[in-house]
């Protein structure tokens, strides 16, 4: 491409493994890309709320807090499960919430200046993370295999699963830092950027859901994955990281317009 858990006991079905959610590298890539496309007003507001820290720096916050039981309610916010071939709007919603309702709630909390600074900052950090999660296709998947966590495969001879392949294995095997990847993926022309940023959260989750369906067909249980799988799917990985970054910028620019 051109340069351009603890909660298993609390919820009946979750889609995440302990390695989940784009890993640290993926989230930092999306944050770094988004940083390049913020308006001046958004940059100033974010710098104030985040005490000068970058989007990449805070992008893993929602994972970092998972070890603290007091944040247990947010586990279900990282993903959504609904049948393949169905739209999110037509699906049965979880009583615990999901990534779509989480993003909507975070946006509302951050925009409301009547909320405490602490509450706005907390939900802002979650929002940054969840937009990244939304673009990891296995976070918009099906419940029966916990978002691919139960589909066991081997990655270069070591045990893994379909979810972990897309959270960590692919991106770590590529061997670039988050700044290197972001640099390669952040240079996007105005026309392409506008096309990527079109749509709503509902469109984006259904887009990831459709990709997820393709990924289920990309492996067989117990399959040995390696160079060929990377060759076939790295461009899709890069596409989703880029989309996540550009769309995060759009969401934040709208929040702070």
Number of domains as seen in the coordinates: 1
Helix tally? 11
Q: Evaluate the radius of gyration.
A: 17 Å
Looking at CATH, which topology would you report? P1 Nuclease
What share of residues is helical? 40-55%
Task: Indicate the low-confidence ranges by residue numbers.
Answer: 1-21
In the CATH classification, which architecture applies?
Answer: Orthogonal Bundle
Mean pLDDT: 92
Strand content: 5-15%
Within the largest sheet, what's the order of strands?
Answer: 4-3-5
| Corresponding CATH superfamily | P1 Nuclease
Determine and state the CATH class: Mainly Alpha
The major beta sheet can be summarized as:
3 strands, mixed
Per DSSP E runs of 2 or more residues, the count of β-strands stands at 5
Protein name: S1/P1 nuclease
Keywords: Disulfide bond, Endonuclease, Glycoprotein, Hydrolase, Metal-binding, Nuclease, Signal
Signal peptide: 1-17
Organism: Flagellimonas yonaguniensis
């Amino acid at each position: 491409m051109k340069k351009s858990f603890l909660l298993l006991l609390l919820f009946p079905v979750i889609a995440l493994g302990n390695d989940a959610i784009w890993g640290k590298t993926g989230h930092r890539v999306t944050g770094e890309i988004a940083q390049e496309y913020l308006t001046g007003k958004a940059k100033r507001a974010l710098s104030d709320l985040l005490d000068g820290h970058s989007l990449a720096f805070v992008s893993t916050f929602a994972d970092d807090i998972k070890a603290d039981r007091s944040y247990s309610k947010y586990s279900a916010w990282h993903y959504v499960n609904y049948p393949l071939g169905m739209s999110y709007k037509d699906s049965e919603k979880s009583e615990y919430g999901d990534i779509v309702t989480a993003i909507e709630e975070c946006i509302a909390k951050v925009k409301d200046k009547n909320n405490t600074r602490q509450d706005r900052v907390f939900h802002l950090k979650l929002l940054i993370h969840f937009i990244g999660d939304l673009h990891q296709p296995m976070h918009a998947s099906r419940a029966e295999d916990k978002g691919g966590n139960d589909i066991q495969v081997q990655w270069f001879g070591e045990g893994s699963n379909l979810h972990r392949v897309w959270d960590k294995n692919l991106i770590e095997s590529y061997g670039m830092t988050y700044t290197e990847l972001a640099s390669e993926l952040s240079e996007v022309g105005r026309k392409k950027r506008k096309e990527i940023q079109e749509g709503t959260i509902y469109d984006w989750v259904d887009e990831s859901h459709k990709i997820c369906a393709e990924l289920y067909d990309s492996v067989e249980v117990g399959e040995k994955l390696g160079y060929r799988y990377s060759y076939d799917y790295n461009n899709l990985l890069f596409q989703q990281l880029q989309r996540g970054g550009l769309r995060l910028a759009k969401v934040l620019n709208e929040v702070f317009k």
